[in-house]
Design a protein that fits this description.
This protein has 245 residues and is α/β, with parallel strands linked by helices. Helix content is 32%, strand content 30%. The protein has nine helices and twelve strands. Helix 6 crosses helix 9.
Length: 245
């Protein structure tokens, strides 16, 4: 997913202390990604976009040195309070990195879909690796949250890339794919309003103002089309990839 600058924005720092109450999808994605990170195989691990530590909890204690980083100071502070044995830092995952060639493993979960320029980002991450290092990442891909577009009839403000798109991005970044896979999961909510609150509760916000009457129509139409015996649902597609130089 990339951000459409005219219609969406991320405000994760503003949601640091309420994030995990809504981030059960992101928590599941982190646990699924962690299945690919073997314990004690790598000495030095850098986690980018660690947020409140949904992936960090699976990394702690598995490396001689673990650094968890995020661009949001409030997220870093919270993650540090929960996982004090790791090193914590403020780091912009999209920019040039200062510690080139220092890491055996670079990892992130639920982050890369936000990259405005994913090829440049992956080239920066590639330069962080030692020659035998690797990148293991998880993100959300198309057709995540397809129900929103189907109800509104317009493109979602959250612009998703598909598995083929990411394969092209990785290869264009000079990275070799050793494995990748995806899976789609249906998540249930009490109502369309509850689903919408969950999206916004993780820090994803739609910048354009939607009149209340239109929102009520959206909730009504969404529930009529995408509900079953378990409640109102939305589908998410998880994707994970392992990459080497």
């Amino acid at each position: 997913m990339a951000q459409n600058p005219e219609t969406s924005r991320a405000s994760f720092g503003n949601k640091a202390y309420s994030y995990e109450a809504h981030a059960f999808v992101q928590s599941d994605a982190a646990a699924w990604l962690a299945e690919w990170i073997p314990p004690f195989k790598y000495k030095r691990c850098l986690e980018l976009g660690s947020g409140t530590g949904l992936l960090t909890r699976h990394l702690e204690g598995k490396f001689e040195h673990l650094e968890c980083s995020d661009v949001e100071p409030s997220m870093v502070e919270l993650c540090q309070s929960k996982f004090p044995s790791a090193t914590h830092s403020i780091r912009d995952a999209w920019g040039k990195q200062p510690d080139l060639g220092k890491w055996n493993l670079v990892t992130s979960s639920s982050l890369l879909q936000w990259a405005a320029n994913p090829i440049a980002t992956m080239q920066n991450w590639r330069q962080l690796l030692q020659k035998d290092g690797r990148i293991i990442i998880g993100l959300f891909i198309e057709p995540s949250l397809k129900e929103i577009s189907e109800v509104t009839g317009v493109k979602s403000p959250l612009i998703w890339r598909n598995e083929s798109d990411w394969k092209t991005i990785f290869e264009a970044s000079g990275l070799e794919i050793t494995r990748m896979e995806s899976k789609t999961i249906r998540y249930h909510y009490k109502s369309a309003l509850d689903f919408w609150k969950s999206i916004h509760g993780t820090g994803t916000a739609v910048s354009r103002k939607i009149p209340p009457s239109q929102m009520m129509r959206f909730f009504r139409d969404y529930e009529s089309r995408f509900s079953d015996k378990k409640g109102t649902y939305a589908t998410w597609t998880f994707f994970r990839a392992e990459l080497i130089i």
